[in-house]
Every structure is written in structure tokens, then in C-alpha cells.
Amino acid sequence: MAIATVPDRGANMPLAASERRSVRPAWRAIPRWPGPGRAAGDIGDASLTSRRTVPVVTVVQTKPKGSDAHARPDKNDPAEGKGEAAPPRNAMLGAMVQALERPRAAFSWAPQRPPRNAPPVRINLYSDTQTRPTPAMKDAMMRAELGDEQHGDDPTVWALCDRMAALMGKEAAVFMPSGTMCNTAAILTHCQKGEEVLAHETSHILHSEGGAHAALTGVQILPLTGRRGMFTAEDVRAAIRPRTRYAPPQRLLEVEQTTNIGGGAVWPLEQLNAVAAVAREQGWATHMDGARLLNACVASGVAPADMVAAYDSVWLDFTKGLGAPLGAVLCGSHAFISAVWRWKQRLGGSMRQGGICAAACLHALDHHVDRLADDHANAKALARGLAQIEGVAVEEPDTNLVFFDIRGTGVSVEELQARLRDAGIMVSALGGRVRACTHLDVPAAMIPEAVSAIREALGRGA
Ligand SMILES: Cc1ncc(COP(=O)(O)O)c(C=O)c1O
Fold first, then answer.
1. Does the CB atom of residue 317 touch ligand 1 within 6 A?
2. CATH number (domain holding residue 449)
3. Could you read off the pLDDT of 229-241 as tens digits, one per residue?
4. Domain range for residue 313?
5. The pTM is what?
6. Is residue 314 part of a domain?
7. Taking a C-beta distance cutoff of 8 angstroms, is the pair 60, 93 a contact?
8. Domain count, the chain
9. How far apart are CA 431 and CA 449, in angstroms?
10. What is the residue with the minimal CA distance to atom 14 of ligand 1?
11. Ligand 1 atom nearest to 45, measured from its CA
12. Measuring from atom 16 of ligand 1, which residue has the nearest CA?
């Protein structure tokens, strides 16, 4: 796309119609879900505290009038065809570009440190990613037998991978530093550049992986709609493209179990199997982002291997409700995991004495799975308490994520966050709603205290 040189004009000149049409903030292209455009919104679990959305502007500039034989009059431009002198455009575009560059220069991609004088956090409902390893988990880490993971010598990593492959009913597994790297390596393995991945419009791969799939995997993501982060087999069928040389080749169907922005919802097993069956009919692969898969299994009573049987690849995060400090395990066939290893190496995800972290994950499998039911019960108690506050609309939680809408109180999400932070309580903001997450470090006794602090911060009495 060439940006043609244009004659000079004053910075305050209005845009011609042709320019107006082609200068468009990119976020408008995202349908329905209002999250990314919200300045202080948190669209994932990263702990950036001051986030600013910088609009990306696409400038498709027409050639200046009379510059060459290709210049055509624009029927929609009131200045066209009336014998008026074309206004100079260079300065206008220059000013626009400068205006966009300024906030970029001021923005830091790095997470911000908490202010020095911030009161200590007493109740952390921000995310289940912020759990701290328990003393028993740290003890297990200290006792771990270690080796060189990327050399295949770390017995604790092997023990974790074998255990996870068995739990998920897959042939093989690989230990990865993060869930984001699992998604990236899985998509790189399943797809070629230019192919299409079908995923929900609120999916983590679309919103919270830093554009990795445009930058690294080269796939495009077709966003599907549906309540609470889920879609149906009919939705998938309706999204099937004709196999022509014009359409992007569709290659992979991705689901999140549980859904994050979708509200911690649990996909019913029949629906998971039904969407995967459409993918199989089409010859596509299937991938499950199981960041909180065991929350879904505990809430539904479905065994992990049954839950993921229809999916070619699946990963589980140990840094969410399971409370480990690092690690996720990606599972699939021998051939798939072997191919993933090449990407793991390329992405810098191969480890050395990784067993120290794998030991924390093994400890979590032994001690932190059944207790996820406590987090779910606490989430329900929190939702019930919040529903009593006038002006607060609460979504009934399936698992450990409680989303609530406070527009009816006249207090903004940012104000609520700030007031709660002053009281030593943290919650997150997602797509204009507040998210409160229950986990290992939030015992039941904290729930009534959290409810009354939120009530007070919303000006509805203590
Ligand atoms: C649904 C979902 N997928 C992927 C991730 C990324 O996991 P990680 O933080 O381990 O990279 C998250 C993190 O919050 C998530 O909620």
C-alpha cells in the first residue's frame, strides 16, 4: 500500500471525503465485545496497571490531483469537479501521524511497579494467576530431582509430562513456560501461514496474546459469536468457507475451557464434542486452550480425558487456580508433540533445570485439584453477596470467575478499582465489567469482607 506524496496544506484543513473513509481506528473492526477500546480495561491477566490503547490508523492516500494520469475525481469529495483548488494534504497527514506517535512514545510496554505507598493487598481477587506457592509446594520444589530439560535429562519434567499425558488421555506431553506459548506453539504446529483459525470473538488468542498470531504464527483468526465465550455446531457450520483460491484455507478450530472473558463458563461436553465433530468433518484440527480446564472438570464432574477426547491438542495451565509459580503442559499425539518441540526451541521455551517448576506442578496435581470446588463455592457466595447491592448486576458463576456490571451504581470500574485498592483489595476490569476471581489465596472467610468493602466503595453503605 503506497502512501503517495501529497501537496502541502494547513494542519486544520478538513479531510476530503476520500481520506475520511480510509482513515479508521483499527479497533472499530472488532465486533460487539467492547473491551479493547477501554482505556483502563484489562483484557487478559497481564498485570499492566496503566494501559493505554493507541489507535492504529491505516492511511490509504489517493494521489494528489493532477499529479499523474491515474488521478481520478472522487465523486464523494465536495471539492471535486467544482473547479476548486485541492487543499494541501501533507501537513494534515503529518499532524495526524505526529499525534499518533506522541502517545506511543509515552507508552511503556513494561508492567508498572505498584506505587511505593500503596497499602498491602489483603484480599486479591484480581486473578487466580496471582496465587503464591504454599510452603508445602516450595518444599516439593526444593526436593525435586533435576536435570537438563532440553537435553531430555530432567526426571521431574518427564514425570510431569507422563502424568499429564495419562490424565488427558493423549500419547505425549511437553512442559512449557506459559499458556501463551502453548497456544502459539500449537497453532504454529497445526497451521501454515495464511490459514484460518476459528475461535470465539472473546478468545485469549485474539485479545490477549499481543498479536502473536499476526506477528508469529501468520494465521488469521475468524471470530465466532455466541453467549459466554461459547458457540454451537451450527455457528461453526455457518462459518465454513468455500474451498476456492480466494478464501483463506480453514485449518483449526479453537475453544477455551473454561472461557475467560466469557465469564468462566464451562462448555457442556456434548457442545464441545459437537463443534469438534464439524471440524473433523471438514478435515480441520482441533485445539483446546485449557488454561482453567480442571476448574471445568471439577465443576462438571467430567473426567479430563473425556472432556478433551475430541481435541487433537490441549494444554493445562498450572499458574491459575492450581497455584504453581510457572508452567503449562501441552498434550497431543507423539507426532504433534515432537513437532511442537521444534517451535518450543525456536521460541526460547526450552528449559534447563525445569524440574524445580515441574515439581510445583506435580504437587498441585496431588493437592490443589479437588480444592478447586472451594473456589467455585466461594465464587457463588461472592456473587450472591454482590447481587444484594443495589445497581449491581451479577452473572451467575459456573466456576471461579465472577463478573459484575456496576453501571447501575454511577461509579466507574476504574473508580471502584482505585477505592478498593486503597482498602487493600484488588479486582480486575474486563470489557467494561468488573471481574473478581476466587482462588487458593482467598479463603471463604474473606468473602463477606470483600462484599462489604465493595458495597462501601460503591457508596451503598458498609
Ligand atoms: C483462557 C486463557 N488462555 C491463555 C492464557 C495465557 O496463559 P499464560 O498466562 O500462562 O500465558 C490465559 C491467562 O490468563 C487465559 O485466561
1. yes
2. 3.90.1150.10
3. 999 999 999 999 9
4. 135-367
5. 0.80
6. yes
7. no
8. 2
9. 25
10. 45
11. 14
12. 260
